[in-house]
Amino acid sequence: MDLLQYNVSYLPREIGFNNTSSICWFNALLQALLSCTQLTEVMIEQSDKFTNNYMALAYIDLARKLRSGADISPNASSELLALFIKQCSRLNITPMEFTASCVDEALTLFVQAINNPYIDRLFCTKYVGSLTCEKCKKNTRAKFDVIITRTSTEKPFADAADLAAYMRAHATRCEQYVCDCGNKNINIPRAELLTMVSEIVAVSFDRRYLNSCNSIVPLTLAIRARGGKMIHYKLVSTVNHGGGHYIAYGFRAGESYFRCNDNYVEQCEYKTDNTVFIAFYSFVELKNE
User: How far apart are CA 276 and CA 261, in angstroms?
Assistant: First the structure.
């Protein structure tokens, strides 16, 4: 298994972004992604592959300036968002309502809009799904990729092992599935089994559930691989939501942890709370256990 490791040399310096036209959700998403060093490393090293992708080139330019100390406009985030929307249109990606309620969908679209197989590999976790037609009872298994794993469970995550177990196997629901028999199944149960993990694992949490059951968002994650090895991850950033507003937490140059609230950025303690909406885990090492 050949995975690109988290590399602190690609962490950016801390900077804030102006919140123009209620884009705190995109500011937070961008700040969280900048902590994912594998994304920055691959995009910079593969910059010649993005000749006609102005959104990707703007992200690369921003990442380079954040590493070099060059001046950056506080409106860089809103400028990147405009290019993101244009890139979605150019690729005929189904547009979404670009609002605060869809930041998890925005992550998926952002990766798709980069439109590069190396970036897809960084984010895409592979599953096998199994579901049964409600009419003919035929069971179907299919492989699929997800950029973000959505947790939907009434069992609290007491520790990192609980979250890893959920990642390996869990039940979810399929919004729509048309069986070979012609029956259209709506919102039916689907069992999902993990087959391959990525360098960057993004997990979304139901914040209402985190509040009600004292479930935690762990700082580390370890997933068992073939041959008795364990794939180890560390939490590098989060997108948090509270009071109708999004902020981010993430590592910056020197591995200091920062709270990023639009254009106000301050160093803080490395921890999580029940306002986490999306957690980003980066691969750090593969160990024999």
Answer: 14
